[in-house]
């Protein structure tokens, strides 16, 4: 950890940061958007009693709803306008990527370049509206039947209430989707990831306070709380270690005669990460599980008997839930790696520029070699994600530890932090290069 901190301090030039006006504008814009998002998580839906919902969520905070509330930054527990958060957009993105892999028409659209990307994005937005509408209607129907010691959750249930809730929640999701796109374009980091990240981080202090309160009341022993904190630190260290690990494949470029000079002959390397998919598999798996379970959880007790049975089997820590969750994490680790890295295209590009791997023939042999290496790395990466996501799940279900100390939340926080820092450093490097170019031009004019 010390070496990573020293490397970060060496890379981050604070003097250059002070002069990077464009970077500071991007950072302030990102912070402003995230503040707007956090304010929206405290604006309740019209026509509900927030106190009743808090009582109900307090009783079910160890279940699926608690996990959904973590991703929503506490907005679901408060039943705010951003209760659905950005999860419908993520679900729509998953569906579009899966369909692109099996549909020749969508695959052809993806190959159209920028225009194809815009079409795919537009289809994803349509899918977001559809999924958000279904989830919002399920939430509205479920809230109407909720009661606690304080009374019913909805004062005036009916068609108008459901319509209002659907419009408000869908509008909130679309607004968050737009905010995420604005952060990506005009801010620093990936907007969608930062929205989920900010929701988790904002509730970390209260989660820590809740854990200490469990220790004070005797629900958790002091030794277990110390073990939990050490485990969280060990998980963070393990995540940083694996996310920074690379398999470097040597690339050699042949020497070429250009006039009287010999050029080329350099050797480089192709870095392949152990976890190429990053934080996407846990988010995708959670999103797909939460999409149907949200409706089932709200309808349990009021709906058909089979809904109650399904909700029981998909409860937090249940074998069916854990098997489905880990299976989805492993599947999306392989699937997303195949989406972001194409061995055949990489081999063609190397052949085009004259690059080759020592002992491997260019073309198909290179593609097969890259595919074999990437498959082995992905096996290790998928196992790493499964361990990170599974072990804390068992602790959460058995000892009622807050979700924010789970592997999925820590993975998201650490990975998004590393990606954002990397983008900040790239902006600083770009600013330094611009400064050097300007100085060179000024010297040339003076000369």
Describe the structure.
By secondary structure, this protein is mostly helical. It has 18 helices and 6 strands. It has helices spanning 2-11, 14-19, 21-40, 50-59, 64-71, 87-102, 104-110, 114-144, 159-186, 191-202, 204-217, 222-244, 280-299, 305-313, 319-340, 343-352, 364-399, 407-446; strands at residues 147-148, 151-152, 246-252, 255-258, 261-264, 267-273. Strands 1-2 form a two-stranded antiparallel ribbon. Strand 1 (147-148) and strand 2 form a beta hairpin. It is globular and about 90 Å long. The model is unreliable at 1-6 (pLDDT under 50).
- Distance from N terminus to C terminus (CA atoms, Å) equals 48 Å
Percent range of helical residues: over 70%
Structural category is: mainly alpha
Strand content: 5-15%
Name of the CATH superfamily: SecY subunit domain
Q: How many domain units?
A: 1
From the 3D structure, determine the CATH topology: Preprotein translocase SecY subunit
What Rg, in angstroms, do the CA atoms define? 25 Å
Strand order of the largest sheet: 1-2
Architecture, CATH level 2? Orthogonal Bundle
* Rounded average pLDDT: 78
- In the predicted model, the low-confidence regions spanning at least 5 consecutive residues are 1-6
Describe the structure concisely.
By secondary structure, the chain is mainly α. It has one domain: SecY subunit domain (Preprotein translocase SecY subunit). The chain is built from 18 helices and six strands.
Features of the shown structure:
disordered N terminus; single chain; globular; two-stranded antiparallel ribbon; 447 residues; Preprotein translocase SecY subunit; mainly alpha
């Amino acid at each position: 950890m010390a070496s990573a901190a020293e490397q970060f301090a060496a890379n981050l030039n604070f003097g250059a940061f002070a002069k990077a006006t464009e970077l500071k504008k991007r950072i302030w814009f990102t912070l402003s958007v995230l503040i707007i998002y956090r304010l929206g998580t405290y604006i309740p839906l019209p026509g509900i009693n927030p106190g009743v919902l808090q009582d109900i969520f307090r009783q079910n905070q160890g279940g699926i709803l608690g996990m959904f509330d973590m991703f929503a930054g506490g907005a679901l527990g408060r039943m705010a306008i951003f209760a659905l958060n950005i999860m419908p957009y993520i679900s729509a993105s998953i569906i579009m990527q899966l369909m692109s892999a099996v549909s020749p028409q969508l695959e052809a659209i993806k190959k159209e370049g920028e225009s194809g990307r815009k079409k795919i994005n537009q289809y994803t937005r349509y899918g977001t509206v559809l999924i958000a509408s279904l989830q919002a209607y399920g939430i509205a129907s479920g809230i109407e039947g909720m009661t606690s010691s304080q009374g019913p959750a909805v004062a005036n249930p009916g068609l108008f209430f459901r319509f209002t809730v659907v419009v408000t929640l869908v509008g909130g999701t679309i607004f968050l989707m737009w905010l995420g796109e604005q952060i990506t374009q005009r801010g620093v980091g990936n907007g969608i990831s930062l929205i989920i990240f900010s929701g988790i981080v904002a509730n970390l202090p209260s989660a820590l306070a809740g854990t200490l309160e469990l220790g004070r009341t005797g629900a958790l022993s002091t030794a277990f709380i110390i073990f939990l904190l050490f485990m969280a630190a060990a998980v963070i260290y393990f995540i940083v270690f694996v996310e920074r690990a690379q398999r470097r494949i040597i690339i050699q470029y042949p020497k070429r005669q250009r006039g009287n000079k010999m050029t080329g002959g350099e050797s480089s390397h192709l870095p392949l990460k152990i976890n190429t998919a990053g934080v996407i598999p846990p988010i995708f798996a959670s999103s797909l599980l939460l999409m149907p379970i949200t409706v089932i959880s709200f309808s349990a007790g009021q709906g058909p008997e089979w809904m109650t049975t399904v909700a029981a089997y998909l409860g937090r820590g249940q074998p069916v839930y854990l098997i489905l969750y880990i299976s989805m994490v492993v599947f999306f680790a392989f699937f997303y790696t195949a989406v972001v890295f194409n061995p055949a295209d990489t081999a063609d590009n190397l052949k085009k520029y004259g690059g080759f791997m020592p002992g491997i023939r260019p073309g198909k042999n290179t593609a097969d070699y890259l595919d074999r290496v990437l498959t082995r790395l992905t096996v290790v990466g998928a196992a790493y994600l499964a361990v990170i996501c599974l072990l804390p799940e068992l602790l959460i279900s058995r000892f009622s530890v807050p979700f924010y100390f789970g592997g999925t939340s820590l993975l998201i926080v650490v990975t998004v932090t590393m990606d954002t820092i990397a983008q900040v450093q790239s902006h600083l490097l770009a600013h330094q290069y611009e400064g050097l170019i300007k100085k060179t031009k000024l010297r040339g004019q003076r000369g």
